[in-house]
Specification:
With about 180 residues, the chain is an alpha/beta fold. It has a single domain, classed as Rossmann fold, CATH 3.40.50. It contains 5 helices and 7 strands. The strands form 2 sheets. It has a 5-stranded parallel beta sheet, sandwiched between helices. Strands 6-7 form a two-stranded antiparallel sheet. It comes from Lysobacter soyae. It holds the Pfam family FMN_red. This is NAD(P)H-dependent oxidoreductase. Its cofactor is FMN. Keywords: Flavoprotein, FMN.
Length: about 180
């Protein structure tokens, strides 16, 4: 049976570096893994008034997370934290109170930025959030990728980073299978 991983990219920009890395890194996963890129760009802002009868887009998000065996967040850093669109998606799928679909979902976190450790604070904030949401966190390594020529080439992870990221994906998938 395939391991199903929901990939949530924190950037909705058309040419997002994080989307490019997310798409390329999934190709490094071992056999038997299915990835679902979860759409967050069309979600309404979370409003507690919607808890009783959530719009279809909110239900779609919740169902995508429920169907996954684990979650991979790939996020940039905006203003020393996570992007608002990502926080909104997290809030939607964690509500109504007591019915979070994030709970017990194992999670990995990576990010890419034009700076050397540009996603460090975003990832630190995201680790705090996933801890609160009761999501077991893969601590194989903290991945702060710097966007540079050759990181992603023709949709594939470049030679300089391939072995490192292949190791991350192998470890992440194996860890997901045991959690």
């Amino acid at each position: 049976m395939a391991t199903k991983i929901a990939v949530v990219v924190g950037s909705i920009r058309k040419d997002s570096f994080n989307r490019q890395v997310a798409e390329a890194i999934t190709k490094l996963a071992p056999e038997g893994v299915e990835f679902n890129f979860v759409r967050i760009d069309d979600l309404p802002l979370y409003n507690q008034d919607s808890d009783a009868a959530p719009p279809e887009l909110m239900t779609r998000l919740r169902n995508d997370i429920k169907a996954a065996d684990g979650v991979l967040f790939v996020t940039p850093e905006y203003n020393r934290s996570i992007p608002g669109v990502l926080k909104n998606a997290i809030d939607i799928a964690s509500r109504p109170w007591g019915h979070s679909v994030w709970a017990k979902k194992p999670v990995g976190i990576i990010g890419v930025s034009v700076g050397v450790i540009g996603t460090a604070l975003a990832q630190a904030h995201l680790r705090n959030i996933v801890n609160y949401l009761d999501m077991p966190l893969y601590n194989g390594s903290e991945i702060y990728l710097a966007w540079k020529d050759g990181l992603v080439v023709d949709g594939e992870i470049g030679a300089d980073s391939k072995e490192f990221l292949q190791g991350y994906m192998t470890g992440l998938v194996e860890w997901f299978k045991t959690h």
